[in-house]
Amino acid sequence: MPKLFDLSQGLGTNTSFWPYYPPFEVKYFKRKVEHGVNAQYISTSNHIGTHLDAPRHFITNGMTVDKIPLEWVYGPGVIVNLSDVMDDLDVYTPEMIEKRAKVENGDILVLHTGWHRFQFGEGDLADEERYLHRHPGAHPDMVQFLLDKKIKLWAVDVVSTDHPMDLPIGRFLGKGTFGHCDRVRKLCEKKFGGPEGVAKLFPEEDYQLTHNALFKHNCFHAENLGGQISAPELQNRRCTISCVPWKFIDGEAAFCRAMAIVD
Q1: Which of 70, 128, 176, 202 has the maximal Cβ count within 10 Å?
Q2: What pLDDT is recorded for position 41?
Q3: Superfamily of segment(s) 3-10+46-162+208-262
């Protein structure tokens, strides 16, 4: 009998949310003692917890969640373990991936960086600043690699597929106030060879690179995976991957319950 592994993070009021986006809120609007039933109301963005970004997220007339073919979000894939080589603000490359596992054309590609362990509810190492501000991200070479491999869906256990220096986090988060972006840039300059190294690896035109460069090709992603992604049985192996979102009409993103299915 196939064994199921939950690759999803829990979702609740403590879950870290994307900067400038609203947090997850939940309340009861009916309680059994008064109304004979328990019922809850939630208020949230789509970009919190384990979720899938549809092309509509960055492309005005891009494909919406309800139009994504099911075979793009369920099927053969591979989970690649990069957790042994990922540290604060690192980049992952196609070479790192292919050194560990064979990626077939059309696979669902899941990258296990180990960063999920810093999210609330994912263990004893919760560190919101580290999870949001210092997560690993894609090297620019990932764009052509994913297109060449004809991948529709790839997924990561971090808050974004993009590196913080290609995001508000490293460019303007807290600018002139709390200075989050200044601290991130300083760390990156130390890591990547000063301002020149940062400018070369993360040029201005690469802002939100994997979103802007890939969505127009219907290559999209899921973010904030976690759960059992560290299970020894899953590391650098092929399996069936499911990241099926709810059928959200005109949705630019949607929550999903990510799973690995091992025969």
Answers
A1: 202
A2: 97
A3: Putative cyclase (3.50.30.50)
3-state per-residue secondary structure call for the chain: CCEEEECECCCCCCCCECCCCCCCEEEEEECHHHHCCCEEEEECCCCECCEEECHHHCCCCCCCHHHCCHHHHEEEEEEEECCCCCCCCCEECHHHHHHHCCCCCCCEEEEECCHHHHCCCCCCCCCHHHHHHCCCEECCHHHHHHHHCCCCEEEECCCCCCCHHHCHHHHCCCCCCCCHHHHHHHHHHHHHCHHHHHHHHCCHHHCCHHHHHHHHHCCEEEECECCCCCCHHHCCEEEEEEEEECCCCCCCEEEEEEEEEEC
pLDDT in tens, 125-184: 999 999 999 999 999 999 999 999 999 999 999 999 999 999 999 999 999 999 999 999
- Give this prediction's pTM: 0.97
